[in-house]
Each structure stands twice: as C-alpha cells, then as structure tokens.
Design brief:
By secondary structure, the chain is of the alpha/beta class. Helices cover 41% and strands 13% of the residues. The chain has 12 helices and 9 strands. The structure holds phosphoric acid mono(formamide)ester (CP) and norvaline.
Length: 308
C-alpha cells in the first residue's frame, strides 16, 4: 500500500515548495484516496482554516478531506475572530499553531501568508493569495492525468488573466515538464518573477509561451483552462476588465480550434457567459466538476504528507 512521504519543506505556500517527485507522489496518493484504496488515520489532528476571502470549494474540500482522515477543522474568518480587529499575524499565528496541527490560510497579500508561516510552528498551506493558488493546481493536474494518463505531449492553454491561478499553473507545469501557454490581453501577463522561475526549471526547453492571441494559442492544445477576469478584491475593476478581456471568452468557436479530444477546465466560481459560455461549461469536453471534486482528494493527500 502506498504510504504518504514526509515532504522536504514544512509549508506549502507555493507550487515550488514541492519537487517534481513530490507532486507526482501527491497525485498518486490522491488517486488512491479517490479509489478508496488508502486509509490514513489523522485522529485528533486539527486543521485551522483562516479565510480572509470567501470560499466554497477550498473551505469545504479541506473540511471534508480532514474529516475523511479522521481529524477535525476549525473555521476562522475575520468577522468571528480577532483577525478582523487587526490582531497582528505574528500573534495570531503563534497562538493558533499551539492549538492546531496545520493551518490553511486564504488571504490577499502573499507576504501575509509568509508571515503566518514565519510565526507558526506548524505547517501552513496556501489556500489562495493574490499571487498563487497551489492547492487548486494539484487538483488540475490530477484531472489532466486522469484524462491523458501522463503529462507527455500535453499542451495546456490558459486563456484569461495572468493572475494567481495562472501563476501556480505555470510553476507546477514547469515542474511536470508540461507545455503551458498563457493567452491574455496586453498588460495582464503573469508575474515576472514567476515567469523567470519557470524558465529556470524548464532550462533550455522553451515550454512556456505567453501570447495575446487566444485563437493561435489554442491550436494543438489538449487542455483549455480559464478563470474569472476579475478576482476577489478586484470588484472595482470589473467594468474595465470586462472590456479589456473582450475576445478572451472560451466559447464553442475557440474550443473547436483545439484538439478534438481537448478537455476544458475552470477553477470555479465562474461568471458564466463572461470568461466561458454555458455551452462549454456543460459540454461533453468539460471536466470542470471532476476538477472541483479532485480538490478534496489532493488535499487529503497533501494533509497526509504534511502530517505524517
Ligand atoms: N476554486 C476555488 O478555490 O474555489 P473557492 O473560491 O470556492 O474556494
Ligand atoms: N483568480 C480567482 C480564483 C478564485 C478561485 C480569485 O482570486 O478570485
């Protein structure tokens, strides 16, 4: 029976906190959890969920993952804890890590997440920041692996904002040697330092392609992926971004230019008819709801590794 390995790093703040072998190990474990072939007992272990932003999938999939492992969760948010009153992160992290065995944090600035990790003496997981969403991306690559068996020759095209989801896709894609194309309007390219780090991982293979032309980008793609145009915290930019992203909708016409067996992914929640049409979300090629389910399986695997 497959056993969870201890990870080299204590925290999971970025896709780059895992090695290629660790990503593969987590995906294998997740598949075993999904097939009910693995039983790990984390009885009496407690996961603290600190969420400064809303969440359906991440919150609930962590809660269910922990319950399935025999542990429990505590749900904290700014309005029901002293976090909203402005208690410093260093105090909050030191206290909560004395009660909990692991913390999952969703917040705005990535540096705040790093501050939690600095002061917590228990593992800290990135449950989404403005810079990265690495738990999401583990579920995405599990979904891709289920479809194509391995990552050889997979071309993944992300059409949308070069934001947190795109950044983590780029990094994990680089670790797995997958060709990642990002098609975004000018000015919405992914973070420079993320692009640089991915380049260092890919070495001489030029497998990260950034373009402003979604129609060219999807040619020869096996996976089409999108995310909302206006992320949490960008509500005031909605009108401008809706205009700037005109032409970047994943619709049937764009899908028809990719490979016939291409699959469609979206991290959700979606603004249907903005970044993706109803027809595409609900199409035969969509794996969006398998992808959402896989959040739970990969997080079970991640928790088992972090707490083993
Ligand atoms: N995909 C994702 O993280 O969804 P939630 O915001 O609902 O957690
Ligand atoms: N980019 C989106 C992802 C939501 C899961 C956001 O940050 O709101």
């Amino acid at each position: 029976m497959l056993k969870p390995h201890k990870l080299a790093k204590n925290n999971f703040l970025s896709s780059l906190d895992l090695s290629t072998e660790e990503v593969i190990h987590i995906l294998d474990l997740a598949k075993n959890f999904k097939n009910k072939e693995l039983n790990i007992d984390l009885k009496n272990k407690v996961l603290g969920l600190i969420f400064d932003k809303s969440s359906t999938r991440t919150r609930v999939s962590f809660q269910v993952a922990m319950t399935r492992l025999g542990g429990t969760t505590i749900d904290l948010n700014p309005t029901t804890s002293q976090i909203g009153r402005g208690e410093p992160i260093n105090d909050t992290a030191r206290v909560l890590s004395r009660y909990c065995d692991v913390l999952a944090v969703r917040t705005f600035n990535h540096s705040d997440l790093e501050e939690y990790a600095k002061w917590s003496n228990k593992p800290v997981i990135n449950a989404l920041t403005d810079l990265e969403h690495p738990c999401q991306i583990l579920a995405d690559f599990l979904t891709i692996k289920e479809e194509f068996r391995d990552f050889k020759n997979v071309v993944l095209t992300f059409v949308g904002d070069g934001n947190n989801v795109a950044n983590s896709l780029i990094l994990c894609g680089a670790l797995l040697g997958v060709e990642v194309r990002i098609a975004c309007p000018k000015g919405y390219e992914p973070n420079e330092s993320i692009i640089k780090k991915a380049g260092e991982i890919y070495k001489d293979k030029n497998l990260l392609k950034i373009t402003n032309d979604p129609h060219k980008a999807v040619l020869g793609s096996n996976v089409l992926y999108t995310d909302v145009w206006s992320s949490m915290g960008e509500e005031n930019l909605k009108e401008k971004k809706d205009n700037d992203f005109n032409g970047f909708t994943i619709d049937s016409n764009l899908v028809s230019k990719a490979y016939k067996d291409a699959i469609i992914l979206h991290c959700l929640p979606a603004y249907r008819s903005k970044e993706i049409t109803d027809e595409v979300i609900d199409s035969r090629q969509s794996r969006i709801f398998d992808q959402a389910e896989n959040r739970m399986h990969v997080q079970q695997a991640l928790l088992a590794c972090l707490l083993s």
